[in-house]
Amino acid sequence: MKLPLCAAAFTAAALLASLTGASGTPARAAGAGALPTVNMEAAVKAAQIDPRRPDDTLTPGAKAAVLLVERALRDRKLLDAKWVDGYFGTTTVAAYAKYQRSLGYTGAGANGLPGKRSLTALGSGRFKVAHAIGPGARVSTGGVVVNTRTRDMLAEAERLAGRDLVLDQGSYNPGGDPTSAGTHDGGGVVDISVRGMDSATRTAVARALRRVGFAAWVRSPRQGDWPWHIHAAAISDTDLSGQAQHQTGDYYLGLNGLADQGPDDGPKVPIRTWEEYQRR
């Protein structure tokens, strides 16, 4: 239907006004000026892997998130501009840990891995946080302390393995245990008893743990001053100690998580985090 000439002119004028605004300048398009987004899962993954790389290869899918984090650290005078490169290496981890300490965090809260609260604070007015992850509260299970994320991961691994898992050691140790080398001093790390398991069962349990997002290995007395057990570190647990961060990074790089950085000797499965396992 055609509009009368005067009505058409009025409609055109109204449309122009809506596009220009009262000042006559072009109005901002819907969504323009929206803050960019940091994918927290990607940034945390890069912060574990990049410091362990022998080169400067970027973690796939993490560059955009890491750059936003590094620029924010640079503008707070915590990171030199030459390190703003999308590579979450040791220098960026140290800068982020310094930022965490400036917020009053200590211990596992100042480990250089972006946590949800610190990352949100860093991005205030600069970026939004998407795909947020967190370890959850500390809880007691099987006589040891873990966090709720680790507890849920263990429960799913038990379901996959078809057996209960007995924990020899949990997380958040006060430190000083020479056999753990500090890996249990933060969150996300457990040692699992293999009493009563044959070789095939030990491997099957390690495989189930890996499937749900642990970097897990069967450890033998030949490798160190410890009995047979399964050592498991929850990838991307933002409470991981520095030593446990190194183990998860090494796992991604095909290594065994030990000081000798030998080849991975565990069952081969697609490497994924707990969050990625839940979305599979």
Shape: globular
Please bin the fraction of helical residues: 25-40%
**Beta strands, count:** 8
Cα-atom radius of gyration: 24 Å
The run of helices and strands is HEHHHHEEEHEEHEEHH
In whole angstroms, the N-to-C terminal distance is: 52 Å
Which spans of ≥5 residues are poorly predicted at pLDDT below 50?
1-31
**What would you call the structural class?**
alpha+beta
Largest sheet: 4 strands, antiparallel
Number of helices: 9
If you average the pLDDT, what whole number results? Answer: 90
Approximate strand percentage: 5-15%
* Major sheet: arrangement of strands: 5-6-8-7
Furnish the topology, listing elements before pairings.
Elements: H1 5-20, E1 37-39, H2 40-49, H3 63-75, H4 90-102, H5 116-122, E2 128-130, E3 138-141, E4 144-147, H6 148-161, E5 167-169, E6 189-193, H7 199-211, E7 214-219, E8 229-234, H8 242-252, H9 274-279
Parallel strand pairs: 1-2
Antiparallel strand pairs: 3-4, 5-6, 6-8, 7-8
